[in-house]
Amino acid sequence: MTTVLVTGVGGGGNGEQLVKALHMAGTPYRIVGTDLTVEAAQQSGANVCLALPRANDPNYIDVLLETCEKEKVDVLLPGSEPELRLIAQHAARIREHIKLLAVNDQTLIEICSDKFKTAEFLSGNGFVSPRSWLVRATEELESINSFPLIVKPTVGGGSQNVYLIQSQDELRMICGFLLGYHQSVLVQEYVGRVDQEFTVGVLFDGGGRLINSIALNRFILTSLSNRLRVPNRTSRTDLGPVLGVSSGVSQGRVDDFPEVRAYCERVGLALGAKYAINVQCRLVDGQPMIFEINPRFSGTSSIRAMLGFNEPDLLIRKHVLGEDLQSRPSYRYGTVLRGLKEILVAN
Q1: Are residues 249 and 184 located together in one domain of the fold?
Q2: Widest CA span of the chain, in angstroms?
Q3: CA–CA separation, 148 and 118 (whole Å)
Q4: Could you tell me which of 187, 197, 200 has the C-alpha nearest to residue 222?
Q5: Residue 138 sits in a domain of what CATH number?
């Protein structure tokens, strides 16, 4: 049986979604889930739950490789962004010990892990994206006078410290607050209506050949999926009566959405993606506008697997089991909703 180690499986994030997807695969896998504690890892439903040090621990890679050897790991899938960045730096060494490490090249990860570098890449390669400003001091804000805006740190995953701004006073206050903790922040034009946001997975086969893509039209005003929801107080009536920001916990409707998927596929090819990327965008007058690219598998991996597009399983079947992948494998369309679950992990 193929053994797959997934890191960062606690807390309902990307790692846990990969474990769920692997459990839904037609091929049975032995899944080793790791997190900072065994109890955190046990939330995921992995077959074996272990603890690893933090990614900033100088012994992390050595402990990871020792775990791979002890558990006879065939496949390694990073489930948290700090681990992803570190593992990508040591990819050549790690690949000597396992059959498949499904991570993109370090250059791509560096671009997509920095939101301003992502914006520069998009504009520099002819892709449409929101206007963006890199701000290092509040004095630089005087020239920014169109609202609404999104303010967030340039580095960091999820929707942490993301703010929706509708006035100059709010802009100065929030940027001043964030610059107390970060060297710079990204100020970005708020675009599109809340019902036109998409999360798009684009999967490549490890050699840069496109396998397929899948787009989910997000429901971002539900309580679980919403971080911010405020009345639109600006003159931008085209944005709708309500402005919103997703929490990062995605749910919604999967359909063909050809214009969205084709555009995100072009971006993935331009980036030189080797494995999975996940693109966040909104459709504005029929044009996708990308505001974030995650250089990894998605937090919607289990939703995609439910509909027949099981990204980690497809890669394992190709690289470990030696199967020939069908070009553009089909999957179902449908609406998938999410809730909460409780697990007793310790008495």
Answers
A1: no
A2: 61
A3: 21
A4: 197
A5: 3.30.1490.20
State both tokens at 93.
């060494």
Identity of the amino acid at 108: L
Q: Give the CATH number of the domain where residue 216 resides.
A: 3.30.470.20
The residue range of the domain holding 286 is 193-336
* Termini Cα distance of the chain: 32
What does the pLDDT look like over 54-96, one tens digit per residue?
A: 999 999 999 999 999 999 999 999 999 999 999 999 999 999 9
DSSP letter for 49, please: E
Residue 76 sits in a domain whose CATH number is 3.40.50.20
Q: What is the DSSP letter of 141?
A: G
How far apart are alpha carbons 320 and 86 in whole angstroms?
A: 23
What pLDDT does 12 receive? 80
- Closest alpha carbon to 70 in 89, 36, 97: 97
338-341 — which CB contacts under 8 Å span 24+ positions? 338/224, 338/225, 338/249, 338/250, 338/251, 339/224, 340/224
Q: Are residue 176 and residue 201 in the same domain, yes or no?
A: no
209 and 180, same structural domain? no
> β-strands 75-77, 210-218: how paired?
unpaired
d(CA 205, CA 269): 12
Are 222 and 298 within one domain? yes
- Measured CA to CA, the distance from residue 174 to residue 245 in angstroms comes to 16
The predicted-structure confidence for 213-244, as pLDDT tens digits, reads as follows: 999 999 999 989 999 999 999 999 999 999 99
Domain assignment present for residue 327? The answer is yes
Q: Look up residue 295 and give its amino acid.
A: P
Domains of the chain: total: 3
Residue type, 283: L
What are 194's two structure tokens? 């809340």
Same domain, 215 and 176: no
Q: Is residue 111 part of a domain?
A: no
The secondary element (H helix, E strand) that includes residue 63 is helix 60-70
Q: Kindly tell me if the per-residue pLDDT of 110 is higher than 70.
A: yes
